[in-house]
Amino acid sequence: MKIVIAHPDPAAGERWCAELSPRLPQAQLATWPTDWTQADYAIAWKPADDFFTRLQIDRALFSAGAGVDHLLRLPALPAQLPIVRVENAGMGLQMVHYCALEALRVYRQDDAYAQQKADRRWFDRELESPARFTIGVFGLGVLGAQVAQALRDLGFTVIGHSRSPRSLPGIECYAGDAGLEPFLRRCQMLVLLAPHTSQTENLFDSHHLAMLPQGAWLVNAARGALVVETDLMLAIDSGHLAGATLDVFQTEPLPETHPFWVHPKIRITPHSAAATLIDETAEQIVGKISSLERGETVSGVVDRARGY
Ligand code: NDP
Ligand code: OXD
User: Fold this and answer.
1) According to a count of CB atoms within 10 Å of the terminal CB, is the N or C end of the chain lower?
2) Ligand 2 in contact with 66 (CB < 6 A)?
């Protein structure tokens, strides 16, 4: 069995090999670029555009992350090749921490207290019950559902939105186009955790951002392509939104000249909300390769028509 690992960071490529080889001693491993022209499996994160013009993959392509937008855009991607994504593998808990940190920071008025410290002002701000703070999670899949449940356990009122109807205990769920506006109208904080697809691209434009209540806060931990960045800036600068926490951007790395870097109401992290844990992820992928080798089906296979 031949497996190619394609990762933009050579050190990560080596890490992948080190995790895979003891688990799959019978496999031959190569990191991209390679002189191989054929392999059975590939594990890839943002591979080069010429990946499929130089290499034939026969059995399956594994994303090294939860998202698959970086693979679906590849030129010459074979139409029938199964694409399999990472399902959780330790990312859910990281995402819970990321979103809970932001929710608590906003709900507990952390920015205002930081300003008070700078001004040496002793002043106790009113704090309502967390049940009166409504957080909406857009995307209720593997990560979104875990985040929604954790935020609910912190006492917030949590609502969710997904493409198809979902049911989660203690969380009011909306779905589809018809559910979007009533969902957005209630979100004092909106957390984006849906994939980048043709349906979600630029969905959060001035029209949809205007549906959020005055003073709402946006957290984008999904993909930059979901948000129209200039519309977001306008929504914040006009005072309609209180601010945003952004982990993902239309262009990554975020260009040095981008106005987000210096905006006082925008918090930035460098696409680090939930990292791929290579050991746990290798374990998951090896399990799936073993199943495929036995002729079994695996979970996490991308539906190309849906785009995730
Ligand atoms: P899943 O595929 O498990 O879940 C995706 C969810 O989004 C599903 O609930 C799905 O609806 C929903 N969805 C898809 N399209 C729409 C739409 N048009 N409108 C409303 N909801 C929609 O993915 P994960 O939870 O594993 O990951 C989500 C995304 O998070 C990834 O695609 C990736 O882009 C991003 N991510 C970011 C990371 C970071 O560090 N910033 C790390 C990991 C992932 P339905 O339930 O009906 O299928
Ligand atoms: C992912 C990511 O999709 O890290 O896994 O963004």
Assistant:
1) N
2) yes
